[in-house]
Amino acid sequence: MEPVYLTKEDVRNLTAKKIAHGREGNIYRVKRGVLYKIYHAPEGVFKTGMTPIYDSEGVNITDYKQFRHQHIGPKTLRYMDNEGNRIPKEEALFKAIERQKFITMSDLPKNVIYVDNKIKGCVLKEHYPAWQIHVIESLPLPIRIKILKKLLIMVKELLEHNIYPVDLAQIPTVEYPYTNVLFSWPFEPKIIDLDGESTVYTEYFSQKYYDKAVINYNQLCIEILTHIDSEKMLEEIGNCSLSFEDSVKIYLQKIKEESHLDFPAEMLASFLKDTLTLEETENYLTRMLKKRNL
Questions:
Q1: Looking at the DSSP assignment, which residues form a beta bridge with residue 54?
Q2: Looking at residue 80, what is its pLDDT?
């Protein structure tokens, strides 16, 4: 696929084809199976008088706690780079195109979009029909386990090629009713938004971004398995006068009552401490499938 060259007028003419919007940009369906993601212009997301600050690596390090806007919030600070090996967003698009030949289970950006000869977006594959991943919480447990196991394998493939999806556990809201993991038929998970702030590309292995991606996957996995809001659980345990061990026991009981699942105490404790590995989660899902002869 060749790069796409547009003018600002072309982008304005896409308005009728807009199907979604997010913190980074708007999504347009230009034809069945093909999406254009056009990034918001910086002046569109910062209040008047605020100038974004970039480090030597091209990473946005503006302190968003100083102000609020409907498109940008403090969570963006998660993507600040401290190791100096994160590839800036525009260059990452070209890396995604190069690395697609190594990735068989996910669709990376297909090409870049130029608006008035400046890189302003990317071409994406549309997964249709598809729903946000949390709809599977109503499915039987064996099906959920199968889907989560497939998703874990997809995440591992990306990590093996220094592609780190760091926003898998995104929770849909009224303003942004989308997630970066979709559920497609037949029972297939799909990772989207493999560009921009939701995904980090590096030249070399990064333990920091690897850990962030693993924590995100584990959070999504445990929430779908147990029907427990992990962020609320962490907050309640942090504010509780009970010991950590007793708090874990209370939540294990809640999980059993709400999801009829005997969840391993050591696994929940590791998750709460951010030390749960991808291998431990994979082994647990595999045991669960064998237990049900699946």
A1: 60
A2: 39
* Domain count across the chain: 2
Q: Give the whole-angstrom CA distance, residue 294 versus residue 142.
A: 8
Measured in degrees and rounded to the nearest 5, phi and psi for residue 227 equal 65, 25
pLDDT in tens, 211-229: 999 999 999 999 999 988 8
DSSP classification of residue 50: -
Same domain, 121 and 255: no
Structure tokens at 61: 């390090």
Model-level pTM?
0.84
Q: How far is CA 113 from CA 99, 198, 227, in A?
A: 18, 18, 40
Does residue 38 share a domain with residue 113? yes
Q: Tell whether 67 and 137 lie within a shared domain.
A: no
Domain boundary among 100, 125, 150: 125
Alpha helices in the chain (DSSP H): 8-12, 89-99, 141-160, 207-226, 230-238, 244-259, 265-272, 278-291
Pairing of β 4-6 and β 111-115? parallel
Tell me the helices (H) and strands (E) count for the chain, helix number first: 8, 11
3-state secondary structure of 234: helix
Residue-range definition of the domain harbouring residue 8: 4-125
Beta bridge partners of 34: 31, 125
- Give the side-chain half-sphere CA count within 13 A for 13: 7
66 and 202 in a single domain? The answer is no
Residues 81 and 188 in one domain: no
- pLDDT tens digits, 45-104: 333 344 556 655 555 565 544 433 333 333 333 333 445 467 878 889 999 999 999 999
